[in-house]
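Checked the freezer inventory, then went back to the computational side. Two predictions to log before the end of the day. The first one is the construct we discussed on Monday; recording sequence and tokens without edits.
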Amino acid sequence: QKILDIYSEFHKDALANPSDHKFLIYRTTALGLGNQFETLVSTFVFAMLTERVLLVDAATIHHLLQPPSGISWHWQTIFDLIGEDTIQKSAKLVNLQWQNPKEFPSLRCANLDEEYPEQFLFVSIANT
């Protein structure tokens, strides 16, 4: 089976049973379109490594890309299902700055679940 087919089924199941899954919400500001694509792909890989569902904030490039058939990746989908209070109780913001690679936080793949146990992980990427 193709990886996107597998992910698509995982994504659909997560939206049907959100309390049993973790989510990564991608948002970006002040980046060029090429950088937005690059960071979106990196964030998707991060979501897959941590077994999270990738959702995108309305302010980003979600309107330029077609998600796999049958899934919605707009973050408002989960917000409507679960509600703001529940999300705020189990959320963390990870702010990644791309301007200086030496200041980029170290993400150790072996410990991603331990470092980010929250159900809702908001990844904000900006270059300032």
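The second is the one RB wanted added to the comparison set:
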Amino acid sequence: MENVEKSETLKLRRRFIGASCKLFFNHCPLKIVRASGQYMYDEQDNQYLDCINNVCHVGHCHPSVVQACCQQMAVLNTNTRFLHDSIVQLAQRLTQTLPDRLSVCYFVNSGSEANDLALRLAETHTQGKDVIVLDHAYHGNLSSLIRISPYKAHGRGGTGCPDWVHVAPNPDPYRGKYRDKDFLQGDIGVKYADDVKDIVEAITKKGRKVCAFFVESLQGCAGQIITPDNYLRNAFRHVQAAGGVCVADEVQVGFGRVGTHMWAFQMQGEDVVPDIVTLGKPMGNGHPLAAVVTTQEIADSFTATGMEYFNTFGGNPVSCSIGLAVLNVIEKENLMGNALKVGSHLMGQLSAMKERYSIIGDVRGAGLFIGIDLVSDVNTREPATSEADRVITRLKEERIILSTDGPYNNVLKFKPPLCFNMEDAKHLLKKLEEIFAELSRTDSQVNFSTMTKPLTNEAIITTRAESTDVGDDDVEPTLMEKRARLVENSSNM
């Protein structure tokens, strides 16, 4: 493939790719030409530490995954209307990691396809329409899923959720309706689940049927939210008692990322069992592969309609061979153990850092799924959106790739490949310490009370997940950049 100058690549992208397809750091984007393990390399061969890629789960271009792909592609690639071994082997391996009742698999190409199929299965089985989702949830980019994803439907360009979609409060113990400073964690989970119960009762009182409760086992786009104890147990009980189907969306957090369990919903207890589980992103380590796993009863309802389910590429021999290779690597390289070990070290050190820097309001996580909630005021928990943007910009300068998310785009979002090791963790912590110290020094040198004001709703929307995707011209400096310039100017006076 011909090498193209970065400026020409950017020019061609702007010419031929839709502008709604955003880049990280659009005002100064990275051109990545190769990757290996937890590292990515630009066109000048500069190495970047990848802290955000939960797709290349076992590491970029893992040799075993590449080999499995090439070997199978050289022999056979066809559809699922022919018998082949890899699809049944992958289905067997997946179901062995799940509760016994989750025993039937459908293979698709993306998490969006998986959630769309899960919605169809639920509608067919329950003959209901009403769906319950969490505030700030994101379940995929298909039209059917934008409707049940408040992260998009209530965000910029969204038209809101339809009346058959019921939005339950996000079970966020730090910023949500019920907070850790007011309730015990187990009690918080029960109280948030009671909100789901209230929605279920409101639906049934209208003579309507509950179709499904869609829930990300741990919420990513909402700001790396760790689901409080007793939430899924009670919420699932309320929904299932009304005849609804519970869907655990593991697209972002599955396959051992949490360290203690293969699937994040299992953190809530062995008795917590959804009716459908959707899998995606990490399943193919960058290859388009996803799945829906459900009960025999729900699968039978789907079959009883008489309509065939066929997916041209879903479950093809190459994809399934790659999926098997990913599972093999997770097991052979003990990546769940690594996620637990490195993640625990990061959580411990970040929690200690929180005591030194008031900008860190909360540190939360499980395994290699961690969020750092930045605040401008520890007591009011006012989100520090501009400062969060400054942190990821500074990390990029240090050749570390991190992103922000959450309703106010103030949460540093950490979800690297599972091969991210202890040395990588120490390097990240060292750079974060330096950057937080810089921010702390800047804050102590200048009184900025006259130049700060609360963000308006419009400003908050503008600084959401696309905050690093501003245009090249007339880039507005961040609040921290304004502060730094004032400090520099005052020192030169």
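For RB: Residues 247 and 360 are 33 Å apart (CA to CA). The longest strand covers residues 369-377. Let me know if you want it refolded.
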